[in-house]
Specification:
Helices cover about 65% and strands about 10% of the residues. The protein is α+β, with helices and mostly antiparallel strands. It folds into 2 domains: about 1-50; about 50-83, no CATH class. The strands form 2 sheets. Strands 1-2 form a two-stranded antiparallel ribbon. Strands 3-4 form a two-stranded antiparallel ribbon. A hairpin with a 2-residue loop joins strand 1 and strand 2. It is rod-shaped and about 90 Å long. The protein starts with a helix and ends with a strand. The model has no long low-confidence stretch (mean pLDDT about 70).
């Protein structure tokens, strides 16, 4: 009788551990998929902003162009850096 109770408890504990391991595995898979999706979105956003965004026929400046003045000198908060 005692052996049956111990075996039943160990089986239940094993099933709970197995269930927790499956939950952990599914969580890790979901996080990897989310990370991959996030990386793809960041790369797409970077490509769009690097090439300039066209909205209603007007193309915005790229980040490098936005930092350059008329003479082609890059300025960051008032400090000029020659190209």
């Amino acid at each position: 009788m005692l052996g049956f109770i111990l075996e039943t408890l160990s089986n239940e504990r094993y099933e709970k551990l197995l269930s927790l391991e499956n939950m952990r595995t599914n969580l890790v898979k979901a996080l990897r998929e989310f990370s991959l999706l996030q990386t793809i979105l960041v790369l797409l956003f970077s490509l769009v902003t690097a090439n300039g965004v066209t909205l209603n026929g007007v193309t915005s400046k790229t980040p490098v162009e936005a930092l350059q003045d008329e003479e082609g000198v890059r300025t960051v908060k008032g400090f000029p850096f020659p190209c």
